[in-house]
């Protein structure tokens, strides 16, 4: 199945109108024509059947038929991760985490962060592409770059964890995660969280965790955390 993403698709409308850029992609790149059937999601859990009704040089009109709504998989995983110095590594993490069903990603700004600016729109496009490729109907939320102090203030829901490299008491992630419980996991920059950041996180009820015995790159740590969460919740629905 080939899946298209159009956020404007809704159960309240019967027709979808694509503007010039999307029309060009539909006709010139994908070679679609009037009468063709396509599968569409709005990234909110809805799947539509779309029948191309008409095509002009500037517009494509698609008839929409709502097929089903899929609830967002439970429990939900939120990873707050410091963007990597090499941007392609962060993009790789977003792509793979999306394929694996992550709910929310928040890029965080830390004391030791080497990348202090991000392109949220590009991250969002990568997540959309991965969502379509993996045939999912929910697009993960990609938040703006947020300071760790601000994040600790606003993140109060679910089980909360911080993965860091300092030599102190930590619980292995496999033992810390709980079945059917939402989780938020903090992943630090290449230089790790500062001692003060770790202290603040613990004071905000984030539990220190270890991701195995090896020191991992930031993006690898992120994927390790997603994998552990999915394995704990093998029957997510």
Automatic annotation (TrEMBL):
Residues 74-229 form the Ribosomal RNA small subunit methyltransferase E methyltransferase domain. The keyword Acetylation does not apply. GO terms for biological process: rRNA base methylation. PANTHER family: 16S RRNA (URACIL(1498)-N(3))-METHYLTRANSFERASE (PTHR30027:SF3), RIBOSOMAL RNA SMALL SUBUNIT METHYLTRANSFERASE E (PTHR30027). It is an enzyme of class 2 (transferase). Specifically methylates the N3 position of the uracil ring of uridine 1498 (m3U1498) in 16S rRNA. Acts on the fully assembled 30S ribosomal subunit. Pfam families: Methyltrans_RNA, PUA_4. Belongs to the RNA methyltransferase RsmE family. Residues 18-59 form the Ribosomal RNA small subunit methyltransferase E PUA-like domain. Its EC number is 2.1.1.193. Its main location: cytoplasm. InterPro entries: Alpha/beta_knot_MTases, PUA-like_sf, RsmE, RsmE_MTase_dom, RsmE_PUA-like, tRNA_m1G_MTases_N. Keywords: Cytoplasm, Methyltransferase, rRNA processing, S-adenosyl-L-methionine, Transferase. This is Ribosomal RNA small subunit methyltransferase E. It is found in: Cytoplasm. One of its GO terms (molecular function) is rRNA (uridine-N3-)-methyltransferase activity. Signal peptide: none annotated. It catalyses: uridine(1498) in 16S rRNA + S-adenosyl-L-methionine = N(3)-methyluridine(1498) in 16S rRNA + S-adenosyl-L-homocysteine + H(+). GO terms for cellular component: cytoplasm. It comes from the Bacteria. SUPFAM superfamilies: alpha/beta knot, PUA domain-like. CDD domains: RsmE-like.
